[in-house]
Amino acid sequence: VLLAIGRDACTRNIGLERIGVKINEKNGKVPVNDEEQTNVPYVYAIGDILEGKLELTPVAIQAGKLLARRLYGGSSTKCDYINVPTTVFTPLEYGSCGLPEEKAIEEYGKQNLEVYHSLFWPLEWTVAGRDNNTCYGKIICNKRDNNRVIGFHVVGPNAGEVTQGFAAAIKCGLTKELLDETIGIHPTCAEVFTTMDITKSSGQDITQRGC
């Protein structure tokens, strides 16, 4: 049984009400703008207490660095809370970067998206005879922006390692065309993202029969 219940935001007993900083009374989270600024202009918040943001240590570290540079170093770079790579380290790992399909549809409209997906069979599973249609890869592309990849999802061995590499490409504006032009390393799990040609809308079979 996996309980992913998150963390409590202990913001109710530190005197925020005395200086007028608003919090979400339901969960204690602090609403901020895209520069981590609260409703009180001289008070900023970062990390797990932010409302609607990811509860991940590397995100808090990055946001803190960028905030310090904006306040004291003349920088204007803001933290990117969308293209954050993350992994669930279950026995069969799940990795993602960018938007989930549901959120992408909500933001861009289903008609403006193309979703490519595939099941795949890791090489190390072939000798052991494990089910060849358990691992899964999916990318979500924005058709109105040169098929730019706005969502990346993978379920399989070492998903964290795979996701970290693709996250850098997504930050650089990865498109479906660039993925298609990339020569895959055979036989790796990550290779599946260089050979995807079946769209979810087509309804075609995505089961695999070989590595």
From TrEMBL:
Family of this protein: Belongs to the class-I pyridine nucleotide-disulfide oxidoreductase family.
Cofactor(s) listed: FAD
Annotated protein name in UniProt: TRXR3 reductase
Keywords associated with the record: Disulfide bond, FAD, Flavoprotein, NADP, Oxidoreductase, Redox-active center
Positions of the FAD/NAD(P)-binding domain: 1-64
GO annotation, biological process: cell redox homeostasis; cellular response to oxidative stress; glutathione metabolic process
PANTHER family membership: GLUTATHIONE REDUCTASE, THIOREDOXIN-DISULFIDE REDUCTASE
InterPro entries, per the entry: FAD/NAD-bd_sf, FAD/NAD-binding_dom, FAD/NAD-linked_Rdtase_dimer_sf, GSHR/TRXR-like, Pyr_nucl-diS_OxRdtase_dimer
Gene: Txnrd3
Species, as recorded: Eolophus roseicapilla
Domain Pyridine nucleotide-disulphide oxidoreductase dimerisation, first and last residues per copy: 84-196
GO molecular function: flavin adenine dinucleotide binding; glutathione-disulfide reductase (NADPH) activity
Protein's UniProt keywords contain NADP: yes
GO cellular component terms listed in the entry, alphabetical order: cytosol; mitochondrion
